[in-house]
Amino acid sequence: MNYKLSVIVPALNEEGNIVWAVQNIIESFQRVGCSAEIIVVNDCSKDNTESILRGISLSGLKVIHHVSNRGKAAAVRTGLENAVGEFIFIQNGNLNIEADNYFKLLAAIKDSGADIVLGTRSSKIHQGAPVLQTQDYFSTLMLNILFGVKLHDWSSHFQFIRRESFLNLAQQLKGKDIAFEILTKGLRNKMRVIEVPIFHD
Questions:
Q1: Which of 46, 59, 100, 136 is most enclosed, with most CB atoms within 10 A?
Q2: Structure pTM?
Q3: Three-class DSSP category at 108
Q4: DSSP-assigned beta bridge partners for residue 198
């Protein structure tokens, strides 16, 4: 089947969240009529994540198991290598999922021709601990100064990436904060980045 979107879910010791995450992703796409594949990469979890995933059989779901712990960046690269979608979204196993956000970002990246689309939360920064708000504000300010852009909120971790563009960045990923790495490396490579308002708890 041809999928427009591939959702990569790197999973490490997510026995309490993984079934919920997969089911909610699938239901979200069904509600908005979006064709998507979900690729879960189990990065050699030490809990029951592997056995739980082996017990799930759903249309559009791919499950890949690393035989050793290779880190989040490697899990994302494994997902990308097995993805067939034109656009990529990286979903943490424990994040909230809003169907409308998928729809908005997918429509934006298809219509705009952008390499990366960011979901921007509607509040001035976002609801949450003041320390986190301050950190997000200054990291966004730093990106704007360094790359001459005008971003408002990079840190929602809601990013859609064009697959062809992501293939050019994937081998450069090294750390755990994949969203930040994708954005900074994309900006450094003069990729086009746009923002779209989203709902975020």
A1: 136
A2: 0.88
A3: helix
A4: 121
